[in-house]
């Protein structure tokens, strides 16, 4: 159901909050070149009811000094310093410190939209466990922001919520997600009700180093009773080819094994009766194999010889983590989008010679 935002709803939302309305949580690691822009996008929106919790995750550049400067000038900024533990642990540290009604995760190189706090105030309903907004990618120093948006609201519960839950891990070409895959599995461009997260003991799994965003949202959705979507671009993501999902990762299989183990645990605890989710898990295993091949033996930065990379490929395909899916013909390799389907089929056929031939032009498969 989609409905326009009313002034009465806006006034009721404003009058309801006398404390901290939203906590912005920022994990920080070596982001000195862009960190000030991220913080500025937030401090310019202070209305007396926000807080910013920054976790300095062992930065080695000038990030610590920038955080100290901002914290000295803005009393609502809290800085926590810890040794480098990774982004999941940093987010959890920030989450434990948060006091706001709503939680909003922000990465240290991104930009929050100019009027985001005002829109959050007008649109976030206490009936929702999660409020989804939109985001846009940018590559320059600052994003071009869209100020003309209707902020129409859509609600998800019952069967629609079940569809959202499966959409989170469903990458089939013939599946049309209720919320775009660019938004649904990310931790940013959305609000989480803090009491909801606390009640279900929801946080990032610190052991997960690969697809931690998807894992977190998949588990959160498993506990969600009602979700809201607002047609508003609240967040601007700084796109980079050097991001985690594109870089050379020769040992990704170890991280993928942990990720799949956690997926299995979440399904057993949160989706036990959902046969559709159990079936989708099999395809998630194949999806992880795609990642391991693309970011390992196929990656352009892998300087090993052809025979060495072929051996790496064969070790992956024959790994016990993947063999049951690779050899199971009921798991169709052609159900993904064209690029991923071609790759999955070539992997099943074990045609590394052809995978090698296209490695320079395949680009990112996500």
Question: What's the gist of this structure?
Answer:
By secondary structure, this protein is an alpha/beta fold.
Q: Layout of SSEs?
A:
Layout: E1 2-3, H1 7-16, E2 22-28, H2 35-43, E3 50-57, H3 63-73, E4 77-82, H4 87-97, E5 102-105, E6 111-112, H5 116-123, E7 130-138, E8 153-156, H6 158-167, E9 190-193, H7 194-199, H8 212-223, E10 227-238, H9 252-270, H10 275-294, H11 306-317, H12 323-326, H13 338-349, H14 352-357
Parallel strand pairs: 2-3, 2-5, 3-4, 7-10
Antiparallel strand pairs: 1-8, 5-9, 6-10, 7-9, 8-10
Task: Explain how this protein is built.
The longest helix is centred in the C-terminal third of the chain and has 20 residues, at 275-294. With 366 residues, the chain is α/β, with parallel strands linked by helices. Helix 8 packs parallel to helix 9 (252-270) and helix 10 packs across helix 13. It has 2 domains: 2-238, Alpha-Beta Complex (Spore Coat Polysaccharide Biosynthesis Protein SpsA, Chain A), CATH 3.90.550; 252-357, no CATH class. It is globular and about 60 Å long. Strands 1, 2, 3, 4, 5, 6, 7, 8, 9 and 10 form a 10-stranded mixed beta sheet that branches. It has helices spanning 7-16, 35-43, 63-73, 87-97, 116-123, 158-167, 194-199, 212-223, 252-270, 275-294, 306-317, 323-326, 338-349, 352-357; strands at residues 2-3, 22-28, 50-57, 77-82, 102-105, 111-112, 130-138, 153-156, 190-193, 227-238. It has 14 helices and 10 strands.
């Amino acid at each position: 159901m989609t409905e326009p935002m009313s002034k009465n709803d806006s006034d009721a939302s404003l009058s309801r909050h006398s404390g901290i309305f939203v906590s912005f949580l920022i994990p920080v690691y070596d982001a000195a070149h862009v960190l000030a822009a991220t913080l500025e996008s937030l401090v310019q929106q202070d209305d007396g009811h926000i807080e910013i919790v920054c976790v300095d995750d062992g930065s080695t550049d000038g990030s610590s000094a920038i955080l100290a400067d901002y914290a000295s000038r803005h009393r609502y900024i809290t800085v926590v310093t810890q040794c480098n533990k990774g982004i999941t642990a940093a987010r959890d540290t920030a989450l434990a410190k948060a006091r706001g009604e709503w939680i909003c995760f922000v990465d240290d190189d991104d930009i929050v939209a100019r009027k985001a706090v005002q829109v959050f105030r007008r649109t976030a309903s206490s009936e929702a466990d999660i409020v989804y907004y939109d985001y846009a990618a940018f590559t320059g120093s600052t994003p071009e922001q869209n100020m003309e948006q209707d902020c129409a609201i859509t609600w998800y519960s019952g069967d629609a919520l079940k569809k959202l839950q499966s959409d989170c891990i469903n990458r089939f070409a013939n599946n049309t997600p209720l919320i775009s895959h660019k938004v649904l599995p990310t931790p940013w461009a959305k609000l989480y009700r803090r009491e909801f997260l606390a009640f279900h003991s929801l946080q990032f799994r610190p052991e997960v180093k690969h697809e931690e965003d998807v894992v977190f949202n998949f588990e959160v959705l498993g506990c969600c009773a009602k979700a809201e979507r607002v047609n508003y671009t609240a967040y601007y993501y700084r796109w980079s080819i050097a991001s985690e999902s594109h870089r050379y990762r020769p040992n990704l299989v170890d991280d993928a094994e942990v990720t799949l183990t956690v997926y299995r645990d979440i399904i057993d605890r949160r989706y036990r009766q959902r046969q559709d989710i159990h079936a989708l898990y099999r395809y998630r295993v194949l999806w992880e194999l795609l990642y391991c091949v693309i970011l390992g033996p196929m990656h352009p930065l892998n300087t090993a010889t052809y025979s060495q990379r072929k051996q790496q490929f064969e070790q992956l395909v024959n790994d016990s983590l993947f063999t049951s899916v690779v050899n199971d013909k009921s798991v169709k390799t052609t159900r993904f989008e064209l690029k991923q389907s071609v790759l999955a089929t070539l992997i099943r056929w074990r045609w590394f010679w052809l995978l090698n031939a296209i490695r320079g032009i395949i680009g990112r498969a996500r």
